[in-house]
């Protein structure tokens, strides 16, 4: 490599470094991708940490500025990683609002006393099943079985049937997926640790196939590689909306089966916020008919605020016979994890 | 040469050491919060099992990288392999492919590849250049006279060549081993559970920082052992070269077809395959529409923050590398090893440790670009230190002695003799950090300014919503940009 080329390389680096220095010396971010946040909005902006994907929720969060009267900055990440970040930041967090993919991450912050109470009228919009006192669910998802009707005439009526030799090697799960782990936590809370362990052992002995995500399980069932999979309902509806029709079918499990757990994505206001009023308005917007319709139509989730119906084709939320469970208890994931590890499932 | 260390070296070297050790200090704080829980995690059988899985993966990947890296380096530098300049440039290019992208392209095309061997395949293809580059550099500077002597004594060529290559191969192998230990994205896509998976799971599922901290500390100890082993392997060989050797290339003759097939196979798997996959997504996904403003601002942010990260890393690596090459004794050894101890920690641990320190002691730069630049320096210091150290070792110390005898101060000799001679190595290390930083994801996600994006975080956003077609432009641009320094690194050694 000639000296000239080396110098050329060095100058490229210098130019880019200067660009970065300019970016940082003004103390601001590069222009935000979605246009949802003006970088110079500065300290007065309402800061949202969102564990939900930008592609999914940015159209909604873009409307928060009008709803709250403040500039809004959104920081996207993985729900649990953002929760860890807030725990690490403690009192000095820059977050005003935490929008989480699941109740567990909100429960963890609640347990550490980092969340402020949500106003009662807002709480009252949502069934007690789907909220705490310092966080509130805004959209719901049901655990379901997806099955291949080409191979399965009568789908199982309970997850407990899946340990039967009849299903050996034909069932798929995604044990590292957060929704699956929430389901196992529900199983533990409902049936006890011993029963949960028996089920996991039975499933493992029955050669249940391990996948990384719900979407991969759904694809495998549609491809005829797997007969039954444990997933969340909206993957199926979203894929059906995209493709027109797909070979697989869904079974919502009856009779309070743990495999029909309804979990929520929700929101909480940080105790340390300096914009409590705007944050509360943001919570109200997410529970408004406008935002709730968005969840129903776009993400195919269940709207949780009273008065808004689920999308066509979905069974109604109040007809679902999921298990009665305190979602705040789903925060006890540590024991679930230990159980999953002890049984060698993850 | 255990002269007193000049302050111009010592001060920045100690800064680098403090930065490198910060994550470890953070882990100790978090692990000590709940000693009982910490002990429980440590004694769990699963912890030992996962440690063995991680070590097994790292050992296998390292061995595979040594085979691929050394064989390619020898073919390119020491034989008359047809088209060896092209092969040389291609051999470094896999550095431009993010391992999570490579893993995804493989599993999308061959779903059955998942697990241990899939992880080995992807990590080997992505990291063998860490072995190839230093070995190719060392091979091109070997003194052929040594080989002639060995041949004349009837000992064959291989023995002496391999012996001379040991330090550079070991340095590359060390980087590969730590990369494999720290890797999360590719192994999780391959569904192979290792130590880092466990660290992520305890953050993600249990919201608990104590187990993650304990596991992180175990990784630090493992890394330290690996670093010590590498130090023993490379020994204290002084291999400064005086003058440029006249090289004679080995004729490949009848072996032409198989060696060409080997070089072609590696290039096809490591560079061709991901490129074709991304190209396919690009073509099938054009209807998705691309936001050019987003692409442009993400590109500018990527180049800016990675460039600044590379420069800062190089500035810290020079004093550490010079110390390691030119000074003996406890302090130099400590400074060099400290740079490595945190290197096997996954990005999220480094990121959280910087959150911990920044909110306490550097709040004004919290969630600003400078903090991310600092994170890149902590993450990628060892790669740059290795390059600097090797290039300083290759310049004869006697030149510095001459400068001193002519009245230069220690600092003056450093500035006017050592550094100019080590410049190619310093720039190579800078380029290596530059392209690695471009691909970095976990720390970038946590530490970037709110609302800002790099190409890697855009890629994460697009794939997170399942639209691989929409992710393709970001993956393609990232690989093309990272290929520029990658290409220069490859050309340098041929």
TrEMBL record, chain A:
The keyword Disulfide bond does not apply. It holds the Pfam family SBP_bac_6. Gene3D superfamilies: Periplasmic binding protein-like II. Keywords: Ion transport, Iron, Iron transport, Signal, Transport. InterPro entries: Ferric-bd (IPR026045). Residues 1-21 form the signal peptide. Belongs to the bacterial solute-binding protein 1 family. This is Iron ABC transporter substrate-binding protein. It comes from Nonomuraea longicatena.
UniProtKB/TrEMBL annotation, chain B:
Residues 51-230, 299-489 form the ABC transmembrane type-1 domain. It comes from the Bacteria. PANTHER family: FE(3+)-TRANSPORT SYSTEM PERMEASE PROTEIN FBPB 2, INNER MEMBRANE ABC TRANSPORTER PERMEASE PROTEIN YDCV. InterPro entries: MetI-like, MetI-like_sf. This is Iron ABC transporter permease. CDD domains: TM_PBP2 (cd06261). Belongs to the binding-protein-dependent transport system permease family. It is a multi-pass membrane protein. Keywords: Cell inner membrane, Cell membrane, Membrane, Transmembrane, Transmembrane helix, Transport. The chain crosses the membrane at residues 55-77, 89-109, 115-133, 169-190, 210-229, 257-283, 303-326, 338-363, 369-392, 413-438, 468-489. Signal peptide: none annotated. It is found in: Cell inner membrane; Cell membrane.
């Amino acid at each position: 490599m000639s000296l000239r080329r080396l110098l050329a390389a060095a100058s490229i680096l210098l130019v880019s470094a200067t660009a970065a220095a300019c970016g940082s010396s003004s103390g601001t971010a590069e222009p935000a991708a979605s246009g949802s946040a003006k970088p110079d909005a500065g300290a007065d902006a309402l800061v949202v940490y969102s564990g939900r994907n930008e592609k999914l929720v940015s159209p909604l969060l873009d409307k928060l500025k009008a709803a709250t009267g403040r500039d809004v900055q959104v920081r996207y990440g993985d729900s649990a990683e953002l929760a860890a970040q807030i725990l690490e930041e403690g009192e000095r967090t820059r977050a005003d609002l935490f929008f989480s993919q699941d109740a567990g991450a909100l429960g963890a912050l609640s347990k550490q006393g980092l969340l402020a109470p949500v106003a009662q009228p807002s709480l009252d919009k949502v069934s007690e099943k789907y909220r705490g006192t310092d966080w509130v669910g805004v959209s719901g998802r049901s655990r379901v079985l997806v099955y291949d009707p080409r191979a399965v005439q009568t789908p199982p009526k309970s997850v407990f049937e899946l340990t039967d030799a009849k299903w050996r090697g034909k069932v798929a799960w995604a044990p590292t997926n957060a929704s699956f782990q929430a389901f196992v936590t529900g199983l533990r809370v409902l049936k006890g640790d011993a029963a949960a362990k028996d089920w996991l052992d039975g499933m493992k002995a029955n050669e249940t196939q391990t996948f990384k995500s719900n979407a991969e399980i759904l694809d495998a069932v549609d491809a005829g590689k797997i007969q039954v999979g444990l997933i969340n309902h909206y993957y199926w509806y979203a894929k059906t909306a995209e493709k027109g029709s797909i070979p697989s079918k869904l079974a919502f499990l009856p009779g309070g089966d743990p495999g029909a757990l309804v979990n929520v994505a929700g929101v909480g206001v940080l105790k340390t916020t300096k914009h409590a009023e705007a944050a509360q308005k943001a919570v109200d917007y997410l529970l408004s008919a406008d935002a709730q319709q968005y969840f129903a139509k776009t993400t195919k989730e269940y709207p949780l605020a009273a008065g808004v119906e689920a999308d066509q084709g979905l069974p109604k939320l109040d007809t679902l016979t999921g298990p009665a469970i305190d979602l705040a208890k789903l925060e006890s994931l540590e024991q679930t994890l230990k159980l999953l590890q002890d049984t060698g499932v993850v | 040469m255990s002269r007193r260390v000049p302050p111009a070296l010592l001060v920045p070297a100690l800064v680098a050491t403090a930065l490198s050790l910060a994550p470890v200090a953070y882990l100790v704080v978090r692990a000590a919060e709940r000693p009982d829980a910490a002990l429980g995690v440590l004694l769990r059988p699963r912890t030992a099992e996962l440690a063995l899985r991680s070590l097994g993966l790292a050992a296998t990947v390292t061995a595979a990288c040594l085979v691929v890296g050394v064989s390619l380096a020898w073919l390119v530098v020491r034989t008359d392999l047809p088209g060896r300049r092209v092969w040389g440039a291609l051999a470094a290019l896999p550095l431009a492919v993010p391992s999570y992208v490579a893993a995804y392209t493989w599993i999308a095309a061959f779903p059955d590849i998942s697990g241990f061997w899939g992880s080995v395949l992807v990590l080997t293809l992505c990291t063998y250049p860490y072995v190839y580059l230093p070995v190719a550099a060392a091979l091109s500077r070997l003194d052929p006279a040594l080989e002639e002597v060995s041949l004349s004594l009837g000992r064959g060529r291989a023995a002496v060549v391999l012996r001379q290559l040991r330090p550079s191969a070991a340095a590359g192998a060390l980087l590969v081993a730590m990369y494999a230990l720290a890797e999360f994205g590719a192994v999780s896509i391959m569904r192979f559970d290792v130590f880092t998976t466990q660290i992520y799971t305890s953050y993600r599922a249990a919201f608990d920082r104590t187990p993650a901290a304990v596991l992180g500390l175990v990784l630090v100890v493992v890394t330290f052992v690996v670093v010590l082993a590498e130090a023993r392997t490379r020994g204290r060989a002084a291999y400064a070269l005086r003058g440029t050797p006249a090289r004679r290339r080995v004729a490949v003759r009848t072996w032409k077809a198989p060696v060409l097939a080997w070089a072609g196979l590696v290039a096809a798997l490591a560079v061709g395959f991901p490129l074709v996959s991304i190209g396919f997504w690009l073509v099938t996904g054009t209807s998705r529409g691309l936001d050019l403003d987003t692409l442009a601002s993400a590109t500018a942010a990527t180049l800016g923050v990675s460039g600044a990260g590379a420069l800062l890393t190089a500035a810290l690596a020079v004093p550490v590398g010079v110390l390691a090459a030119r000074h003996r004794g406890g302090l130099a050894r400590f400074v060099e090893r400290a740079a490595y101890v945190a290197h096997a920690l996954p990005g999220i641990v480094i990121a959280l440790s910087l959150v911990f320190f920044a909110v306490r002691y550097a709040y004004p730069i919290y969630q600003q670009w400078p903090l991310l630049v600092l994170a890149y320096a902590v993450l990628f210091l060892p790669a740059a230190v290795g390059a600097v150290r090797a290039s300083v070792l290759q310049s004869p110390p006697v030149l510095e002695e001459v400068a001193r005898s002519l009245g230069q101060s220690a600092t003056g000799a450093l500035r006017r003799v050592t550094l100019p001679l080590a410049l190619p190595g310093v720039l190579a290390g800078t380029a290596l950090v530059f392209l690695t930083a471009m691909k970095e994801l976990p720390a970038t996600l946590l530490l970037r300014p709110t609302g800002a994006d790099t190409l890697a975080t855009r890629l994460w956003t697009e794939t997170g919503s399942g639209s691989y077609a929409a992710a393709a432009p970001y993956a393609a641009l990232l690989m093309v940009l990272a290929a520029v320094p990658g290409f220069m690194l490859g050309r340098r050694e041929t």
